[in-house]
Amino acid sequence: MKAFKTLILTAALVCGGMMTANAQLGGGQKIVYVDSEYIMENIPEYGDAQEELNALSEKWQKEVKTIYDKVSEMYSKYQTEMLLLSEDQKRAREQAIVDKEQEAKNLQMQYFGAEGQLYQKRTELIQPIQEKVYTAMKELAQAKNYAFILDLASGTSVLYASDKNDVSDDVLDQLGNVMQTVRRENRRKATAAPAGGTKSTTTKSGTTSGSGNKGTTSGNTKTVPVKTKK
Fold this sequence. Notes:
Layout: H1 18-24, E1 30-34, H2 36-41, H3 44-81, H4 87-112, H5 117-144, E2 146-151, H6 168-175, E3 181-182, E4 189-191, E5 200-202, E6 208-209
Parallel strand pairs: 1-2
Antiparallel strand pairs: 3-6, 4-5
Helix pairs in contact: 3-4, 3-5, 5-6
């Protein structure tokens, strides 16, 4: 399944225009940032959702491929036997091939179309997590009096970002009140680099915290877009 590009929560929690926010910074407000990839990778529920989506995608791809393989088989057989067929038989065989191919295309759209079953399942599994992440960021911004929370993983041009303004772990701690997140000391460590640079990462294993339950780390997962609220 094609990896989803991360573009979540960019310039989330905008408390007015940039000029207004800048004017308010003197009153104790500040601009901070998060790494949305880091946040999602440290939510085991998100990793589980991605595994389920990948499994469904592979299953449905095999179903579609089986029908396309049948189309190829029918066409090869038709080419071999066409000299022995009457015109009516040729037309019937050709139509059968066309119909089978259309069946494969219809199934492909049913599973992988813009509003297909994979999209619907992704929405069902991922959207609740996105909502919790957004809520945690909003609560943190309100509690800490942040004017803006930017997302370094969104592709936004950031020439420099100080580690002391990275509140990704704070967001994960806030999320721990409502869902499982990897414990702070066991989270994948990410070092943010200036725009155009690279990030070095180290993965550690460990149990999770949140909702009073135990769990495992999320492991290597893919990320998906999150729609922000205004």
